[in-house]
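Quick check before the chapter quiz. The format below is the same one you will see on the exam, so make sure you can read both the input and the output lines.
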Amino acid sequence: MNIEHREQSACASFKPSSDGDGLEWIRHQALTQGSEEDYPVRVAQLDIRIKELSRGLDLVEQLNAGTPVVNVLDKGGKFDLTNFKGIIDLSKPVLMGHSFGGATTLVGLSKEPRFKAGALLDPWLFGLRETISQLPEEIDKPLLTINMEDFVTKEKSLAQLKAFLSSRSEVERVMCTIRGTVHYNQTDVPFATSRRMKPLGGSVSETGEHVSRQLNIAVLRLFLHRQLGLKEPRDCHDIVREYETLVEKIQWFDDRIV
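Here is the expected output.
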């Protein structure tokens, strides 16, 4: 399930119009990252996002149950949503988010009991400034954090994130930083921009985008397979071992904080 947020942080989104005959566009609201005057807006956006997460999970449960769901992208009904009936495994939903989505993931794990584990991808914690100190003890679920070196250093968020490692010792907490990486290394941006455009978009990194992608996917797969009770993929261990010098293991699988 991929949530398309409708609190004006997305580039653009839409919803059915009030009369039901068309679409109402929700346009992007430009904000300055870390701006004090925008802080209340970010808090409000987080509140909307948590409601969207719960509603999204409700919709997936309805699809699995065969309950009719309105598909705004398929008014002609060409795609039969009942094809999803009984084939979705909802026993262990995992919540994952990048940047502001990382903050959303933390709050979602604390508010929505149906999510069983979470993964933070280079989380941006600005919207949690006044509440993050309460979350380490509130979240009683396994948690993975993969930091990109440039962003976690600029945001000075490592100390806040480490608080989650020393809490709830009964559940697994894994955290690492991939050296030589930037915030966009966990997105498609480095692959979608030309060499000339990368400096303008902030996607130039010392560690190449292909290696960064391999490491991000390998660590994420190792975590997910463990949480879902699946056999750990050998190729992921091999990738982490091959690029071991690039991975700062702050707290590794079944290890103590280093």
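If your answer matched, good. The chain has a mean pLDDT of 91.
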